[in-house]
Write a structure and sequence with these properties.
By secondary structure, the protein is of the alpha+beta class. About 60% of the residues lie in helices and about 15% in strands. The protein has 3 domains: about 160 residues, no CATH class; about 70 residues, Single alpha-helices involved in coiled-coils or other helix-helix interfaces (Up-down Bundle); about 130 residues, Heat Shock Protein 90 (2-Layer Sandwich), CATH 3.30.565. The strands form 3 sheets. It has a 6-stranded mixed beta sheet with strand order 7-8-6-5-3-10. The protein has a two-stranded antiparallel ribbon with strand order 1-2.
Length: about 375
């Protein structure tokens, strides 16, 4: 019998509850009830009592099995499954199937050492029952050995799955925490920048407006001059705010690479990148960063890849970002994301090239001419894996 997913107890990391992902398809585990009836198909011939008892045992087991997927059920499904098996064994040796189910439930619900100890105890009780029924010691040992081998595989596989699911959950929570802290830092930076930009300017506007209000009746020329200065200060502040907002909206390729590494790590996809350009114009970097984001999103959704290679290089008077994966290929060239990518690059005089033969991955190339604009440095250029 193969490992059947039963639930683990509620778990938490740093006080936050996590779902170990063990409840996806519980019905699949019921296919192993076939092994309950397997011994009845071989000599010696069995009577209607054994067949009826086996069918009744399966019916009784169904609510026990589904109850084991509810966290609030506690440990009673383990004991109930084992009892059904022990009660059926005198009539049908296939009752040992329920013992294996009980071992799987124990491996999911109990701490590892307790699960292993309980599984050994269940096997010992089953062996004693076979001997107590007057079976030949060799036959009894054979039944116990079969269950021991299968049960060991089930328990080991289940415990390994628990460890892997917990690691994935921990990794996801760490990614969420990184994103939360990054968003918090960005909000604080925006608040500081806006305060620096507008605090002094608005103070000047208030003072000059008050002065103009006092002078307008007796010295209207001076008041008009003050109002003119208020207008100039306000226009300058508006220009600075627009420049700041443009800076917030511009993409950062290194930041996009870091975000891609996080999300791909959670999906168990390797990211290898090589940055060969020291500086990029702001508009060009923003377009390439958005293109990289769209490419990574497509890989996560459609490619089924295990590795992504990203390379940024200069070719004469233009810069090219190449993103390749080892997935299934055959992507649509007219998707909304690709259309938007083409439009953004076309506005800068660039182009998008796609190679996606079915079964041979996808290679996306984004090329943009370098314009004579103010450039921003990319920190730490070089290779990474």
């Amino acid at each position: 019998m193969v490992n059947d997913p039963s639930p683990a107890p509620p778990a938490s990391i740093n006080g936050r509850a996590i779902d170990l992902g063990l409840f996806e398809r519980p019905g699949i585990g019921l296919v192993y009830l076939f092994f309950v009836f397997l011994p009845l198909m071989f000599p010696p011939r069995v009577g209607a009592l054994a067949i009826s008892a086996s069918a009744i045992a399966c019916v009784l087991f169904l609510p026990i099995y589904y109850a084991s997927f509810r966290r609030e059920s506690g440990h009673w499904p383990i004991a109930a499954s084992a009892l059904v098996g022990y009660a059926l064994i005198p009539l049908n040796p296939g009752g040992n199937t329920f013992i294996i189910y009980a071992m799987a439930m124990a491996a999911h619900r109990l701490p590892p050492r307790m699960a292993v100890g309980l599984s050994a105890g269940l096997l010992l009780v089953m062996g004693m029952e076979f001997l107590g029924l007057g079976r030949e010691p060799v036959a009894a040992l054979g039944f116990v050995a079969v269950v021991a081998v299968i049960g060991t595989m089930v328990v080991a596989g289940t415990l390994y799955t628990r460890v892997q699911q917990r690691r994935i959950a921990e990794l996801k929570l760490s990614h969420d925490e990184v994103r939360r802290l990054a968003a918090l830092a960005e909000r604080e930076r925006i608040a500081r920048d806006l305060h620096d930009l507008l605090g002094h300017t608005l103070s000047i506007v208030v003072l000059k407006s008050e002065l103009a209000g006092k002078l307008i009746a007796h010295r209207p020329e001076v008041a008009r001059a003050q109002i003119g200065e208020v207008e100039q200060v306000a226009r300058q502040a508006l220009r600075e705010v627009r420049e700041a907002v443009t800076g917030y909206r511009s993409g950062d390729l290194q930041a996009e690479l870091a975000a891609a590494r996080l999300v791909l790590l959670g999906a168990e996809i390797e990211l290898h990148h090589r940055i060969e350009v020291d500086a990029l114009p702001v508009a060009v970097e923003a377009a390439l960063a958005l293109g990289l984001r769209e490419a990574v999103t497509n890989v996560l959704r459609h490619a089924g890849a295990r590795r992504i290679d990203v390379r940024l290089e200069r070719q004469g008077e233009r810069v090219c970002l190449r993103v390749g994966d080892d997935g299934r290929g055959g992507i649509e060239r007219s998707g909304n994301g690709l259309v938007g990518m083409r439009e953004r690059l076309a506005a800068l005089g660039g182009e998008v090239l796609i190679e996606s033969p079915p079964g041979d991955g996808t290679r996306l190339t984004l090329c943009v001419p370098l314009r004579h604009e103010e450039s921003v440095a990319l920190p730490s250029p070089g290779a990474g894996a």
